[in-house]
Amino acid sequence: MQVHVRDNNVDQALKVLKKKMQREGVFREMKARRSYEKPSEKRAREKAEAVRRSRKAARKLAQREGIIASPKKKPRAPRPGMRPAPSAANATH
């Protein structure tokens, strides 16, 4: 895994590295290896994860098909230093 540090901005590079490690599942694996997990506990955990994934997939499919309502999207707060997007009400032509 490789992260480039731009303009000596180590904080930003660390943030990118942590995100990459999270996506790869490094933190989850480190937590799992901290202590021994009995085979029966491993089977139960994996089965619970499979159930959770299948329920999530079914929920997403139902939302796409309109069977259940999609969750309301929260309006995102503008990031500092960013200009607000031009709205249709403020547009002058």
From TrEMBL:
Extract the Gene3D superfamilies matched here.
Answer: Ribosomal protein S8
| Signal sequence segment | none
Q: List compositional bias (Basic and acidic residues) regions by residue number.
A: 30-52
**Which UniProt keywords are listed?**
Ribonucleoprotein, Ribosomal protein
Extract the ranges annotated as region (Disordered): 30-93
Which Pfam families does the record cross-reference, listed alphabetically?
Ribosomal_S21
Q: Where is the composition biased (Low complexity)?
A: 79-93
Among the GO molecular function terms of this UniProt record, one is: structural constituent of ribosome
Positions the record marks as coiled coil are none
Q: What is this protein called?
A: Small ribosomal subunit protein bS21
Any one GO cellular component localisation term in the record? ribosome
Which InterPro entries is this protein grouped with? Ribosomal_bS21, Ribosomal_bS21_sf
Q: Species lineage, top-down?
A: Bacteria, Pseudomonadati, Pseudomonadota, Alphaproteobacteria, Hyphomicrobiales
Give me any GO biological process, just one. translation
Family to which this protein belongs? Belongs to the bacterial ribosomal protein bS21 family.
Does this UniProt record's set of keywords contain Ribonucleoprotein?
yes
The superkingdom of the source organism is Bacteria
